[in-house]
Amino acid sequence: MQPFLFLDSSTLSVAQLVRRIKTLVEDDDVLRDVWVRGEVSNFSRAASGHLYFTLKDRDAQIKCVMWRSEAARVARLPREGDAIETHGKVSLYESRGDVQLYLDEIKFAGAGTLWQAFERLKTKLDAEGLFDPAHKRALPAFPRVIGVVTSRTGAVWHDIRRVLARRYPLAQLLLAPTLVQGAGAAEMVAGAIQSINQFDIDALIVARGGGSIEDLWAFNEEIVARAIYNSRVPVISAVGHETDFTIADFVADVRAPTPSAAAEIVAPDARELRASVRAAELRIAQIARERLGEARGELARQMDALERNSPAARVAADRQRVDEWTRRLALGAAQLIAVKRGALAGAARQLSALNPDATLARGYAIVREKKSQRVVKQLPKTETEILIRIRTGEFEAVTRGK
Questions:
Q1: Does residue 137 contact residue 234 with C-beta atoms inside 8 Å?
Q2: How do strand 203-208 and strand 235-239 relate by DSSP bridges?
Q3: What angle do CA 286, 292, 298 make, to 5 degrees?
């Protein structure tokens, strides 16, 4: 492949060319505010909520885009083959170089009068605050009695009963039968809503199956809108198919895409509740076991501390110490007595050795002055009466003196 050769500075890149075309398109006053009519083809709704389709007629076609924020205001989404009138602006999608129509409004051709009435009432009620999110009420978590306003003979009543019997058989259903299309249907629907509110219900489903705009028109009447707004209990609107929008949907506290979906929204799934209860039971049992184990460990520690610090333990320890001290005292006393006995025996022997009787027994005598009874240790100088004591007795004598 030969490389591109840019011969002069006036040559544009693809991106520059596309941006220039986009600027020219977006600067056109007509293309910035344009109504286009045609037939819907290749309609799709992305997971993001944005709408993509082709608007065509016999001679041409153009790709259309409607962002989610704009699509949320459309009462009914278009279907394949619908003849519609669209409003928006023309621009260029640079990545593919596609000229596209970016829409902010859709009207259905062939039902122009009804849709204009729809838009007028929608604008009026919105201005009065009937669509205000602050007025929306939460559905009860566990409804006891669920009211239903729909036809007794249609498939809707059967579908709601079937779904609730499977999901939440604890709830009771109370039907307020009514016409859901045709002459007088709007008045009957409004009257049924008001009547069933007199009963002890916890939530209310207002429902009918799908159909054309004419078939659903009773739920676009002001009398029905105000009955829903003034309902004592939260209201789920389930009118038509997922792509159908009615005034009732905007006023209701919750919109369900189908009547069966309304039955799923209004009450929990008993199977999920049982699973949740079982999981909670297991968790509570686990926590109880953990807490019980912790309590047992703490109790054992407290009992050990109590035993260590109890008076009985201290008394037992003191008793043992008394016994030890008693044994030590007895041993010390015995040793002391033995020592004293030895000392006494020694003293006795010493005393015995110093005993005068012992001295006399060895042949000695003790001489005392008779008068003073003092022991004579040397010969008196004068005659002195003395007493002489020997082993066998005592006798008197007189000294001669020096």
A1: yes
A2: parallel
A3: 140
